[in-house]
Amino acid sequence: MVVAMIATPLFAQGGDQRRVLANVVVLSLFGVGVLTTWAAHRLRAIAAAGAVIAATYFVELLGSTTGFPFGEYDYTGALTPQLAGIPVVVLFAWAGITLVVHGVFAGRLRRVWLQLPMMAAAITAWDVFLDPQMVGEGYWQWKTASVAFRGIPIVNYVGWFVTALLNSALVVGLCRPRREAASRFALTTYATLAALSTVGFVFFFDDVVVALVGAVTMGACVWCGYNLSRHTQSSAA
């Protein structure tokens, strides 16, 4: 994942090489998510990944055809294969980030009603980087909106949060009983996504605003995960 993220700016925007590397990043992220969840929950990790893929497929299908809940957008034919116009890699991206974020917060919050919104916020924070970069690559396009961030409708982030909340509930519900083992590797992975995305937007994608907003939002989630980890360890001691 790290190698593919570093290599991406070395190739032309919208080119075949970047398309391949985008797939490598997503599938690597998915692999990290499944393996870190497998370590604590075994086959439940596969069930959780499948549930998120299925749920987000129907949400993406609804979104791309009706504009709800993300706003009006269309996928181009750049990312393949596709199911009814939905790129399969997008579904793996949803599953990967959800499982990684579950690893960040698993066992660190005893109350599910606190864990779920924190997971949803961390997942949505990633989209601050993801959407501007993917639109720039020509993988999908948005209809003009009156309230937007770098051309991305603000309602998209509301839709992401709601969808992430659903996905988080699926993963938390399926990965029970919880053997409360938050993954340092998952936290490291999430922090790496934040750091490399920030560097990418500052030095290669020429958008300091996205870099700053993304660094703050994802960085806040890294900080929360790290401090909750320290608190959990001290409580256990």
Question: Percentage of helical residues?
Answer: over 70%
Largest sheet: 2 strands, antiparallel
Whole-number total of structural domains: 1
Radius of gyration computed on alpha carbons = 17 Å
> Which regions are unreliable across 5 or more consecutive residues at pLDDT < 50?
none
Give the topology string: H per helix, E per strand: HHHEEEHHEEEHHH
Structural class of the secondary structure composition? mainly alpha
Q: Whole-number average pLDDT? A: 93
What's the count of strands?
Answer: 6
Q: How many helical elements?
A: 8
Cross-sheet strand order for the largest sheet: 1-4
Strand content: 5-15%
Give the termini distance in whole angstroms: 34 Å
What does the overall shape look like? globular
Fold topology:
Elements: H1 2-7, H2 16-41, H3 43-66, E1 73-75, E2 82-83, E3 86-87, H4 88-105, H5 112-137, E4 140-142, E5 148-149, E6 152-153, H6 154-174, H7 184-203, H8 208-236
Antiparallel strand pairs: 1-4, 2-3, 5-6
Helix pairs in contact: 2-3, 2-4, 3-4, 3-6, 4-5, 4-6, 4-7, 5-6, 5-8, 7-8
Short description:
Helices cover 72% and strands 6% of the residues.
Describe the structure.
The chain is mainly alpha-helical and 237 residues long. It has one domain. It has eight helices and six strands; from the N terminus they run H-H-H-E-E-E-H-H-E-E-E-H-H-H. The chain has helices spanning 2-7, 16-41, 43-66, 88-105, 112-137, 154-174, 184-203, 208-236, and strands at residues 73-75, 82-83, 86-87, 140-142, 148-149, 152-153. The protein has a two-stranded antiparallel sheet. It has a two-stranded antiparallel sheet with strand order 2-3. Strands 5-6 form a two-stranded antiparallel sheet. A hairpin with a 2-residue loop joins strand 5 (148-149) and strand 6. Helix 4 packs across helix 6, helix 5 packs across helix 6 and helix 5 (112-137) runs antiparallel to helix 8 (208-236). The longest helix has 29 residues, at 208-236. The protein is globular. The chain starts with a helix and ends with a helix.
